Amino acid sequence: MPPRNPIWKKKSRALLRAKKDFREGEPEGLHDLRVALRRVSATAEALRRQKLAKNSTEVVRRLSRLRQLEVDRHLLGRVRELGLLSADVATGLEARWDALLRSGQREASRAARTQRMHRIERELKRLTREKPDASLDLLQRERRRAEQELRSLPEPPTDRQLHRYRLAVKKARYLAEDLALAGLPEMSRAVASERKIQDAIGRWNDLRLFRKRLLDTRDEAEKRGAVTLVRELDHLITALQRTVDAARREAETTARRQTGVATFRRSRRRESEN
After folding, report:
1. What pLDDT score was predicted for residue 1?
2. Predicted structure pTM score
3. How many whole angstroms separate alpha carbon 46 and alpha carbon 32?
4. How far apart are CA 141 and CA 138, in angstroms?
């Protein structure tokens, strides 16, 4: 009998494809694997599959260190291209961070082979054969709750609040994707709007965490008495703060603008229904 549940079928296929790409060393393999697992977690939580949600979240957590290292290493390469560090300092940092990457890759590879991961795959395969039943109602209910969370960005938000808002946007977007797949194509507008918010806040978050790693590296260098490295990192960290601040302003502006547009659309839709 062919699979009867398109939502779980799509998630199962996406996870298997991402895991294969990750194991084969594809450039976006790790990113795609984490996204596939986050989507599984969001849907599982909405549909009361708590064990599946917990297992997926735990594997994502174990992959997060490597993903951030990848992002930081990419940004370090951009810094070198822009000439913001001397060649000697950049080469030394690259060698140090590449060693961390190799360690992180071993840890992430183990996480992708655990029994927990196998249980996720088996459960998804089983769920593809289940009838949707009350899935649509549950997804719509969780989506409404998620929309409420997106209206609560403080003015101004703390770094922690902005980061948590980004996670809320991800969850809302994944639920909108599920609803579009379940037969509500109008949700595609919400998906596009929330992707813009997620991307904008994500750029700020990547820069913020990159600057934090540089600060930690600078403190370690000071303890070792590496005067030249400390001096160059001080200049870079100071210059980078302006970039982080600009990305933060853009993230807040995008979030408020896109949320406002979505609220207006929902209001117009309710008016037309009445």
Report:
1. 46
2. 0.88
3. 21
4. 5
